[in-house]
Amino acid sequence: MSYLVINGGKKLKGAIASQPAKNAALYVLYACLMIKGKSVLRDIPKIEEVYRTIELLKSIGVKISWQGNELGVDASGQLNLNKIDRRACAMTRASLFLLGALTRRANNFKVYKTGGCQLGKRTIKPHVFALQKLGVTVESFEHYYLVKYGALKANKIVMYESGDTATANAIMAAVLIPGQTVIKMASSNYMVQDLCYFLNKAGAKISGLGTTTLTIAGVKNPPAGRQGLKPVKNYAIVPDPIVSMTLLSAGIVTKSHLTIKNCPLEFLELELCKLEVMGQKFKIKNKHKSPSGYFDLVDIEIFPSQLKSLPDKIYGRPFPGLNIDNLPLFVPILTQARGRTLVHDWAYENRAVYSLELQKLGAKITLLDPHRLWVEGPVKFKPAEIIAPPALRPAVNVLLCMLAAPGQSILRNTYEIERGYENLYELLNQAGAEIKIIKE
User: Fold this and answer.
1) What are phi and psi of 292, to 5 degrees?
2) How high is the mean pLDDT of the chain?
3) How many angstroms separate the CA atoms of 291 and 74, rounded?
4) What is the C-alpha to C-alpha distance for residues 369 and 373, in angstroms, rounded to an integer?
5) Who contacts 270 (Cβ-Cβ below 8 Å, separation ≥6)?
């Protein structure tokens, strides 16, 4: 275990590059289970959530090999689902992707109940309802889900919720079922698009990318000895708009002149619109394509600005709305804005509650109910010692506010941050922060 010592109140400067997207990497890693052969992925973030996924995949017989920033994933061998790493399942919610990815690889198997951020009750009903339409049943028991594949069939699916993970599970299951599947009210978020681009390179036939209606022409059962999808070589993961927003928040809350490089613009436009209304000054420059060629990237240069509160409440919703995971990252920014803003975090039962931890640093936050809070500003932060809340974005919020608090702060339980950010402390230090990692 380790903890952080933050000497806050420092201005950040220069440029910081966004990292590859955690969620997109996880989606694509699980999609490799559908391919009998070795795929090579580029720009996989070296973060704890990816490490847990690799542990899980290796435990069932997938061969994994790192070479620089390339990751080889070979699922061509026999999978042994009885040896699944129960601890890895318990530490990441991404293991739910086994439900869809194993459609043609298994009949009946168990998936142990998942972990990840502790955000209250998180239903898997959208996954269950979508997969039922394709002939997959999921039964819930105390410690595991029992997955059974019946007579699989293409079908029309209306997503019970436009969730990212549920949509991805439906896509992965449908790709290898002959016939046409139409998924309506599908998520069109960055990680779902990246998954679809990857699968199409492998031979899938998915159309409607970037929209809420996906049409999938299922790959027919291949002749004996052949595979339905072919390995993909040199596929690069999209940069992470949540990391981009985290770095923007770090620069804004410390009133810094900073450039965030390689930001996926399409998935940040509404966030930038909100910031512009608040009075934040920025420039968008150097538009270019992502390494995969599918996404537009830009550099965003921000300047110290006098901020005012938003005239209306701020809330997240499925893309193309303000990203649900970017919503908490506005809370540190709002503490520096003149006035009061209502934040409505409707998607999770407990996440808004974690914002109260920022009160220990001097934030003026009033919790109205488990989903809504008032944020007042501007405030001057003060140092404190805090145990990071057990959720990724609320945990990094504490770090961001500590960067702006003059004096020495201590942050414990940093695993929550390291689940989703690669070398974040080093990147911030290179830009002028003072963060020390103390090993216990």
Assistant:
1) -75, -20
2) 92
3) 22
4) 7
5) 320, 321, 322
